[in-house]
Amino acid sequence: MRLAAAGALFLLAVLVAGQTGAPQGPAAPPLDYVCPMDPGVRSAGPGKCPRCGMTLVLRIPDAVEYPLDLALKPRAPKPHEPLELTFRVKDPAGAPVRKFETVHQKLFHLFIVSQDLEFFVHGHPELTGDGSFRYRASLPAPGMYRLLGDYYPAGGTPQLTVKSIFVPGGRWQTAHLTPDLATRHAGNTDVELTIEPPAPWAGVKTTLSFRLNPADGLEPYLGAWAHMLAASDDLIDMIHTHPFQPGAGAGPEPVVQFNVIFPRARTYRLWVQFQRKGMVNTAVFTVLVAELQ
After folding, report:
1. Count of CB atoms within 10 A of residue 45's CB?
2. pLDDT tens digit string along 237-248?
3. 255 and 210 housed in the same domain
4. d(Cα 14, Cα 169) in Å, to the nearest integer?
5. Per the domain annotation, does 282 fall within a domain?
6. Is this structure's pTM higher than 0.90?
7. Which of 207, 230, 198, 214 is nearest to 279 (CA)?
């Protein structure tokens, strides 16, 4: 009986100590889950990214380059004639990559922009049996075209790779763009752009708010409420991004908001794409970005 009583008293003391805040050792650090596509999206536990829908991963690895090779057929393209582009992705050791993660419902997003920034394509090359991606295009005029490939090798990190191709007969010159924020009619909706701050600065967050009228029937487009490509007038900077807020309820608010940091003081052309009642709308704006004073 004495041993039993002593044991009971000891157990009671242990329980009381636990309840009164006795040292229990250091707490485990919280887990840090992030979105591979939008590293600014973080969570203490697993789940889906509210911006792009990708599965959050535990502590995204450091970015590693997976080079992209491009072959053209014919090698010297001509305006308005069929052109086949073949993309091959290699791992850091130079071996071909054959497996890719789906990003916004596609394995590969391709953007093509002409040197005068008047021609724009957002397409999706198809994966072939040998691991390459193929895309058929037709380019409207001689000159340089910039290509942005957006792909995610399995086991790697998301990649944004820029390539250039030339259609003989033209010469390179920087586009002369005039800022233009006028409301656009695009397909079956009007798009109005509001910028904060009204005069954007390089290196500082700029909020781009696109108001749609009408906004009823707005649908997700490739896994997001919108896609946007921003390109500088000299085609050095190309930014592919998605809305900051994912929308509410069954559909987004009439305003779709992007947060962007323009890297340099240049004039940028923006192509923003929405889908309404089955139709993809592309609205084009031109924004002047100044040096931070």
Report:
1. 10
2. 999 999 976 543
3. yes
4. 86
5. yes
6. no
7. 214
